[in-house]
């Protein structure tokens, strides 16, 4: 199978990831942070190592400010629902994923105020519009770094400095960029950073994390056993335990740790360059096909490796079905981001989303182009 659905979950993973998941399962998948026997201590050590790897990647000084979650959605929910109260105002955008839009919708129904700013046809927000929406009660700006529909990458430094100037918490959904684009929480003034472990960070499914800056106090999310303060009935109020109730996904986090090690060893700039080269080639080849409509930016600058297209008037689901029959995996439809389709005019059939990863090849793209050519002529 030619796998072009990396925006959903990356595949394949580096070999050290597979090895470590199995190694953990076979040798040290005990309960971390609960017991003092060797296996439990080894599990705790691996979790700590993974926290350290994440810290190094995003310039986070204290790894305890990183909370492990099961995916980006859980991290986003902990953050948004934890910070916003009735009467607070949140600014977000129409290019967000439902993992942001749905918690915001829920909070709006509970009495919070939500403003969604527009994006242009390429998916970029306008900073002037963002500034104009800021009010006395604006508590949070939450922005998706890379669009999972158009691949547009927003400028975090600019948005972060606006938030800083106004004393507003800046939250970033880095689901599509973590592991490929440089993200520095200090440089971009990011207060809350949510990301999955199973996409660009090359870890297994069931992993994700949330960075919480010192001084940001989030409400409790799930309460339960943490292995700390066990004689008390109240949830610990310190990080990461406050948000890590119940047994952690040690094999998954062990794999995630190795995924990040692979990224740091390869060099994040080399990973980005490789994905950029593949994306540029894909776009250049797609542009030659008269039946193909490309959405968003037409070259590889300021974008990730997510490319949305349609072929003639074909329903995207049908295209995906036929490509799958030809051994090519893409995603079709609305990609859990309902509002952006109104901007790009794809609210009827959605789009065919091609999302490349570090392990794709130029040959994969050539095979995809051949299949699209065939579809376009039939
Ligand atoms: C922009 C964006 N945010 C959030 C998510 C949710 O990620 P997860 O499936 O890890 O919860 C996705 C997943 O596709 C995404 O693309």
Overview of this protein structure:
- About 40% of the residues lie in helices and about 15% in strands.
- It has helices at about 15-25, 40-60, 70-85, 100-110, 125-135, 155-165, 250-265, 270-285, 315-325, 340-345, 360-375, and strands at about 1-5, 65-70, 90-95, 115, 140-145, 170-175, 190-195, 210, 290-295, 305-310, 330, 330-335, 350-355.
- Helix 2 (about 40-60) crosses helix 7.
- The longest helix has 21 residues, at about 40-60.
- It is globular, with a radius of gyration of 21 Å.
- It binds pyridoxal-5'-phosphate (PLP).
- Pyridoxal-5'-phosphate binds near residues 7, 71 and 208.
Provide keyphrases for this structure:
378 residues, alpha/beta, 7-stranded mixed β-sheet, 4-stranded antiparallel β-sheet, 13 strands, binds pyridoxal-5'-phosphate
């Amino acid at each position: 199978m030619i796998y072009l659905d990396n925006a959903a979950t990356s595949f394949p993973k580096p070999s050290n990831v597979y090895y470590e998941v199995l190694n953990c399962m076979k040798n040290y998948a005990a309960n971390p942070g609960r017991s003092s026997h060797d296996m439990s201590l080894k599990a705790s050590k691996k979790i700590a190592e993974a926290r350290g790897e994440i810290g190094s990647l995003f310039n986070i000084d204290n790894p305890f400010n990183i909370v492990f979650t099961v995916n980006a959605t859980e991290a986003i929910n902990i953050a948004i629902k934890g910070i916003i109260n009735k009467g607070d105002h949140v600014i977000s955008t129409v290019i967000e994923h439902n993992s942001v839009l749905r918690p915001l919708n829920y909070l709006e129904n509970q009495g919070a105020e939500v403003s969604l700013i527009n994006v242009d046809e390429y998916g970029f927000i306008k900073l002037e519009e963002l500034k104009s929406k800021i009010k006395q009660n604006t508590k949070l700006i939450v922005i998706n770094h890379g669009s999972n529909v158009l691949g547009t990458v927003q400028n975090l430094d600019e948005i972060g400095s606006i938030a800083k100037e106004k004393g507003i918490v800046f939250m970033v959904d880095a689901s599509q960029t973590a592991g490929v684009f440089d993200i520095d929480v200090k440089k971009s003034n990011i207060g809350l950073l949510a990301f999955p472990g199973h996409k660009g960070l090359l870890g297994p499914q069931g992993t994700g994390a949330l960075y919480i800056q010192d001084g940001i106090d989030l409400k409790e999310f799930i309460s339960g056993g943490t292995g700390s303060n066990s004689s008390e009935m109240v949830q610990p109020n310190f990080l990461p335990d406050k948000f890590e109730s119940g047994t952690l996904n040690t094999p998954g986090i062990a794999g995630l740790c190795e995924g990040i090690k692979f990224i740091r060893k390869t060099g994040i700039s080399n990973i980005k360059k490789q994905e950029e080269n593949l994306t540029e080639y894909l776009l250049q080849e797609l542009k030659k096909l008269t039946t193909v409509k490309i959405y968003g930016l037409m070259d590889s600058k300021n974008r990730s490796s997510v490319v949305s297209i349609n072929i003639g008037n074909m329903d995207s689901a049908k295209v995906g079905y036929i490509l799958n029959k030809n051994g090519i995996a893409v995603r079709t439809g609305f990609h859990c981001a309902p509002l952006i389709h109104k901007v790009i005019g794809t609210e009827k059939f959605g789009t065919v989303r091609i999302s490349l990863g570090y392990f794709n090849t130029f040959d994969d793209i050539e095979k995809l182009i051949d299949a699209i050519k065939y579809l376009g002529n039939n």
